[in-house]
Amino acid sequence: MNKFIAIFSMSLLLLLSGCGNTTIEEQKEKTDGAVKEAFTSSAEKTTDTAGNVSLYLPFGADIEKESPNNIIISKSSNTFILFTNPNEKEDSELLYTMTVKDKNNIVAEETFQKENRFGYYVIKQLKDNKEYELIVGVGGTKMTTQSTMENLAENSEMMMKIVRSINTED
C-alpha cells in the first residue's frame, strides 16, 4: 500500500509541476494582446529626459547610458536598448522592414496601424534557445531586449508603453 501511495504521489507531483509550464504559443498570444493594448491606448506621460528625448519610464527603470540615437535602460536585471531615428515619422515602416529582412529565427511578428502610427513587435529565437530577442517599435523608434519566454508579454507591454511615449525635440 505504501508503494502505491508513493507512486501515486510522484505521478501527481509530476502532473501538477507540468501545469505551470508555459509554451511559446501561449506567450505569443499574451505578447500580441499586451502589445496591441499598449499600442492602441493613450501614450503614457513622459517622466524622464535623455538628451533631446522625453520618455516615460516605469517604476524601477533607469537610464544607464545615452548617445544621440540610443538610450540604454535597465530594469531589474534586464537591459533595454531604445533607438530613435528623428528623421522617421510614426508611420514609417523602415525599422520594421530592416528588422524582419532576415526571416531566420523569427518566432512571431505582428504589425498594427492606428491614426498615422505604424507599430510592430518581432520575437526571434536566440541561438542558445533559452532566450528570445524581443523588438517593439513605432515608426522611427524601436526598443530591443533579450527576454526569457515567461517574460515576453510583460517586457513587450512595458517596451511599447515606453516607445509610444517618446517625444523628440529638435
Describe this entry's structure for a reader.
The chain has helices at about 1-20, 25-40, 95-100, 150-165, and strands at about 50, 55, 60-65, 70-75, 80-85, 105-115, 115-125, 130-140, 140-150, 165-170. The chain has about 170 residues and is of the alpha+beta class. The chain has a single domain (about 20-170), classed as 3-Layer(aba) Sandwich (Protein Transport Mog1p, Chain A). β3 and β4 (about 70-75) form a beta hairpin. α2 packs parallel to α4. The longest helix is centred in the N-terminal third of the chain and has 18 residues, at about 1-20. About 30% of the residues are buried. Mean pLDDT is about 90; it is low at about 10-20. It comes from Bacillus seohaeanensis. This is Lipoprotein. Keywords: Signal.
Order of helices and strands: HHEEEEEHEEEEHE
Please summarize the sheet with the most strands: 7 strands, antiparallel
Mean pLDDT: 88
Query: What class, by secondary structure content?
Result: alpha+beta
CATH architecture label: 3-Layer(aba) Sandwich
Tally the structural domains.
1
Tally of alpha and pi helices: 4
N- and C-termini, Cα separation = 78 Å
Spans where pLDDT lies below 50 across 5 or more residues: 8-19
Rg over C-alpha atoms, rounded to the nearest angstrom: 19 Å
Query: What is the highest CATH level, the class?
Result: Alpha Beta
User: How many beta-strand runs?
Assistant: 10
Strand order of the largest sheet: 3-4-5-9-8-7-6
Question: What is the overall shape?
Answer: globular
Percent strand equals 35-45%
User: What is the CATH topology?
Assistant: Protein Transport Mog1p, Chain A
Helix content: 25-40%
Organism: Bacillus seohaeanensis
Protein name: Lipoprotein
Signal peptide: 1-22
Keywords: Signal
